[in-house]
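Saturday, quiet lab. Running sequence design on the structure tokens for the scaffold JK sent over.
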């Protein structure tokens, strides 16, 4: 436990390999140190641990450093709807800014390291550092655009196009993080993918099999290899270069 605590204490924005995707991007050294001094880095979250729950007040934003996190909402009948899968470099908690309360839940999907950024301190600092304010606005804008793309996907695309688009976009997100865009491990289950895409788990499993038979992908459990990126992009209704 002491060794884990020491490792957490040595983590900072300066040596973070994904800082270009997060708040520190574009900040000069002095501004970076001011941001870094307010960030709280605690023990890792284990699978199933919650970062926050619906109804709780906004106290912090959370930057995923390693692992993955899912956001979901519960309707009046207690039915769960996954709204986002967050990877390293993503910020979680934007939805609470407008009302000061969270409207969804955030839960670790595997052992995950998270940087906790106290919101009041961040708000004060963005007033003093224009570059930080611009980066925060850019990240919020990206989340809004991602939500719009998802709404379009659910309303206008077939089941095949939904799953293919999901894999193409996931591939692009891994590439942006300096990871392999052709081979990666899915941290989400087939049921979670189906919930997110508005498909049954049976449909998701059938489509994975269909894509594999068509030599678009190869699947080994949760390991996915994209064997024909151009064809996968075509199946998604996207430009051939979308999965390169």
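Result came back. Writing it out in full:
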């Amino acid at each position: 436990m002491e060794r884990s605590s020491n490792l957490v204490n040595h983590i900072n924005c300066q040596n973070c390999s994904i800082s270009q995707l997060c708040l520190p991007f574009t900040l000069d050294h002095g501004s970076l140190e001011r941001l870094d001094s307010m960030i709280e880095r605690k023990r890792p979250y284990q699978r199933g641990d919650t970062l926050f729950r619906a109804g709780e007040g906004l106290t912090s934003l959370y930057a995923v450093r390693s692992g993955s996190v899912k956001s979901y909402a519960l309707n009046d009948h207690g039915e769960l709807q996954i709204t986002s899968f967050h990877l390293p470099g993503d910020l979680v908690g934007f939805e609470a800014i407008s009302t000061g309360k969270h409207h969804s839940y955030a839960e670790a999907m595997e052992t995950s390291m998270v940087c906790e950024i106290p919101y009041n301190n961040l708000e004060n600092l963005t007033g003093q550092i224009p570059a930080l304010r611009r980066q925060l606005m850019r990240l919020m804008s990206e989340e809004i655009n991602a939500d719009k793309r998802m709404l379009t996907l659910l309303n206008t695309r077939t089941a095949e196009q939904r799953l293919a688009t999901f894999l193409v976009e996931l591939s692009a997100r891994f590439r942006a993080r300096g990871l392999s865009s052709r081979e990666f491990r899915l941290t989400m289950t087939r049921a979670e993918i189906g919930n997110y895409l508005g498909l049954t788990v049976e449909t998701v499993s059938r489509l994975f099999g269909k894509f594999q038979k068509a030599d678009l992908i190869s699947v080994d459990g949760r390991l996915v290899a994209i064997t024909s990126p151009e064809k996968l992009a075509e199946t998604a209704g996207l430009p051939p270069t979308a999965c390169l």
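Notes for JK: The domain at 2-147 is CATH 2.60.120.10 (Jelly Rolls). The first helix runs from residue 2 to 9. Ask whether to fix the surface positions before the next round.
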